[in-house]
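During the reporting period, we have paired protein sequences with C-alpha cells. One record among many follows, to show the layout:
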Amino acid sequence: MDKYTGKGVYGAIAIGKISVFKQQDAEVKRMHVDDTENEKRRFEEAKTASVKQLSEIYQKALKEVGEANAAIFEIHQMMLDDEDYNDSITNIIETQHINAEYAVAVTADNFAEMFRSMDDAYMKARAADIQDISNRIIGNLSGETSEENSSDEKVIICAYDLAPSETVALDKDKVLAFVTAHGSSNSHTAILARNMNIPAIIGAGDEFLKNIKDGDQAIVDGFTGEVFVSPDSETSEKMLKKQAQDEEKKRLLQELKGKENITIDGHKVNIYANIGSVGDIGKVLANDAGGIGLFRSEFLYLENSDFPTEEEQFAAYKKVLESMAGKKVIIRTLDIGADKQCDYFQLKKEENPALGYRAIRICLTRPDIFKTQLRALYRASVYGNLGIMFPMITSVLETEKVLDICNSVKAELDSEGMAYSENIELGIMIETPAAAVISDKLAPLVDFFSVGTNDLTQYTLACDRQNPDIEQFVDTHHEAVLRLIEMSATNAHKHGAWIGICGELGADTKLTEKFLRMGIDELSVSPSFVLKVRETVRNINLSQE
C-alpha cells in the first residue's frame, strides 16, 4: 500500500479504481508555412469552435454548479476575443510564417508568464485560464482533445491538474472523486469540485502521478487529503466504516428539514443561505434555509458584456423575492473590484486591488451606476421581504452618503409614482477592521450588520486570501478576528441592530457555539451547509459554561 497526502477540498470518501486523465498534449511543433492567410483562417475557425464548446460547457455548468460558478466559462469566451491576445497570434503567423498551433502556443506561454509575474493573486490565476483556452484552440486546430473515461464504471480521476473546463466536462455519473498532483484550494477547479459535491484532493504531488496507473484500486479521503493506492485490508475496512458513518450522517441531516434552529436551552438563531444568482434559489429551498443572507448582486454585472439595465436588475430581484415567498432576502449591492474584475467598468490596474477602488468606493464615485441598482432594488421590494446591505464600509461618512443616496432614490420614485416598500432593512458589512472598531458609531445608522469574515480575516491578518503561498499563515480562528466580531455584536445590540455572519466562518461548526455566545443573531452559509449548522445549533446548551 502507498499513501499520498494533498489537500482535501471536498470532504467525502471514495473507493474505486483509478483512471489517469489523458490530457491533450499542448506540445506543438513549429512548422514553416507559405500561406499565412490560410493559417489565420484556420485560427479563426478553431476559435469559433472553441467559443461554441465553451458555451456548451457553460450551459452544463449552469445546471451543475449554478450561475456564479459557471461565470468562469463566460469569462473564458470573452478572453478569446481579447484584442492583444488575438493580435499576438496573427502577428506571429504573419511575421514568422509559422503554423497557427505554434503561434497560439507561443502566445499562451508569453501571456501566462506575464500573468504569473504579477503581484496580484487574482491576475496570477489568469495564467491558468490563458493556458486552458489556448489548449482548447490548439486541440481544435490539431483535432486532438482530452480523452474521457469511456467505461460505464465509476472511477477516481487522477491528473497533473484539471482546468475548470475539464472539471465541468467530466461526466459526474462516472466520477467517484478526483485527485490532482498540483493545484490550489482557491482555484476555480477546487471551487467547482466543492459545488459539484465531488470528493477531491489537490496537490498530491508528482510522485503520486508517476507511481499510479489505470485500474489501480484506491481510496480517497477528502476529509484528510489522503489517497491510499492498493490499500491493505485493514485500511479498506477502516475507510469503509468511515464512509458508512459519513453517509449515515448525511441521511440523518435530511431529517432536520422543517425543524427549528434552536439550542437545547431555547435560544433561537436564523440560518440563511448565501447565493450568487437567481438560479441558486432551488438549492436554498431544497436545504430548508430560513432566508437568503447574502445575494451577490455583482454576478449580474460579471455575466454581462455591458452594464445591466434597471429593468434587467429589477426582473432578477423581483424573481428572487417572489420565489422566497416572504422569507428574508438580503441583497448586497455591487461588489466589483479586487478579485472580481469587469472589463466594461474600465478599472485601472492597481498594485493592491484588494485595498483599492472596489465595492462601495465605486458606487459612491459613480453614483449613476449605484442609483440604477438602488432603483431596481427599491422597486422590487414590494414583492417580498427585502434587506439591502452595503460592502466595504470603513467610516460613518461613507454610511451617511449611502443613506443620502437611498433617500434621493426614494424621492425620485415618489415623484414618478413608483411603489416601494417602507419596511426595507438597510445594513452594512463588517469586513474591515475599521468598521468593527467604530461599530458603536455605525450601529445607530443602520438596521443590521453582516460580518464578511473572508475579507475581515484578510485585512486583519494582512494575508491575501487569493494567494495560495501564504495559506499556512491564515489562521481563520485568530483571536484578533474573533474579538472584532464580538465587539461588533456587542455594539450592534447596544444600539438596537441585529448582526449576522455571511462569510465562510458562518459554516465553521467549531465556532458556532462561540458565535451564539457572542450574540450573533444569524448565520448565512452555502445552501449545502444549512442542515449541518442546524444540527450543531440544536446540540448546543448555552446555559452551561
Summary: Residues 36-79 form the longest helix (44 residues).
